[in-house]
Amino acid sequence: MKAVALKRYLPSSNPEALLDVELPDPKPLGRDLLVRVHAVSVNPVDVKVRSPKDKTEDTPRVIGWDAAGVVEATGPDCTLFKKGDAVFYAGSITRPGSNSELQLVDERIVGPKPRSLDFAQSAAIPLTALTAYEGLFDRLSIDVGGKHAGRTLLVINGAGGVGSIAIQLGKLAGLKVIATASRPESQEWCRKMGADQVINHHQSIPQQLKALGIAEVDYLFNTVNTSAYWDTMVEVIKPFGGIVSIVETDEPVKLGALMRKSVRFAWELMFTRAIFQTEDMQEQHRILKQVSEWLDAGKLKTTVTETLTPISAANMRAAHGKLESAKMVGKLVLEGWR
Asked: d(Cα 22, Cα 268) in Å, to the nearest integer?
């Protein structure tokens, strides 16, 4: 099978950072699906994993954690899907990624592809939707059915992949959503995703919120930088509110600063269920199935803004470079094999 892989960890501008390779076709066992990949999208985790480091791989390593395709074969224990089913998924960071013609993925973390979307539009969704859903509804315990309607949610970096879905899911739950974005095009994107208000994260967030008549927010979703926004988050979160972040920090933060307000803080990593094979691992199948239904019903929209064809090392290096520019709005997808 064709694949895009790495042997060394190099800058995306280096022609050897990602390579076109031929690898053996994998065989499904247990609850694995063998999926023929039609489209993939690129996420910050791809860039982080590929980033320069003093390490080499003995065999080509395939990365990438977002795909849409068709089931080619199933393992003997599969019950959720059959050959010919169209699917979308993020996969597991502990296994070979989606930048290959064929990929093995546990069916418990796979969902049915939205019928109303093509493969490219579908591939933009899984990782970000799982992250946003788990962050809002699992970590912050927001009621997806609307019991918390009217409460306020601040999404830091609303124009990114996760932020774009978090805005939409927040609105679906009836929240008033304030997103941050700094450029006119990213601000307009946040409004397109449904944000009620958009403020600039390069300016004082507390002051801008107060100008909107919002002294503090009930919930806060940080998608970009935990330590840089820590003091701001402490200041603007309401007593008994909740903060979730998806970006680890190498710097100490003053967790005790949240005690006075009795605020909860939670990490969200959508790979946790797959990494630890948790008892509720199949919850990601349920979430993706629900997201697929919402997309087909028009309650959510895809976040793809750019598509490159075909899936190749050159296009993948270009895609990584675009993400590293920190100017991406929405999601970038690669589709089709040469």
From this structure: 35
Is 312 strand, coil or helix?
Answer: coil
What are the percentages of helix, strand and coil residues in the chain, rounded to 5? 30, 30, 40
By CB atoms closer than 10 A (0-12, 13-18, 19+), residue 191 is: middle
Domain boundaries, the chain: 2-125+276-335, 129-267
pLDDT at 327 over 90: no
Question: CA separation (Å) from 8 to 1, 17, 87?
Answer: 21, 7, 31
Q: What is the tens place of the pLDDT at every residue in 198-222?
A: 999 999 999 999 999 999 999 999 9
Q: What does R_g of the chain's alpha carbons equal in angstroms?
A: 20
Q: What pTM value is reported for the model?
A: 0.97
The reported pLDDT for the residue numbered 215 is 93
Q: What is the pLDDT of residue 87?
A: 99
Q: Which residues pair with 110 in a beta bridge?
A: 89
Overall fold of domain 2-125+276-335: Quinone Oxidoreductase; Chain A, domain 1 (3.90.180)
Report CA 258 to chain centroid distance, whole Å.
Answer: 27
129-267 maps to CATH 3.40.50.720: yes
**pLDDT tens track for 238-250:** 999 999 999 999 8
Strands of the 2-9 sheet, one edge to the other: 19-22, 2-9, 53-62
Q: How many CA atoms lie within 13 A of 194 on its CB side?
A: 22
Is residue 63 within 8 A of residue 99, CB to CB? The reply is yes
pLDDT in tens, 116-142: 999 999 999 999 999 999 999 999 999
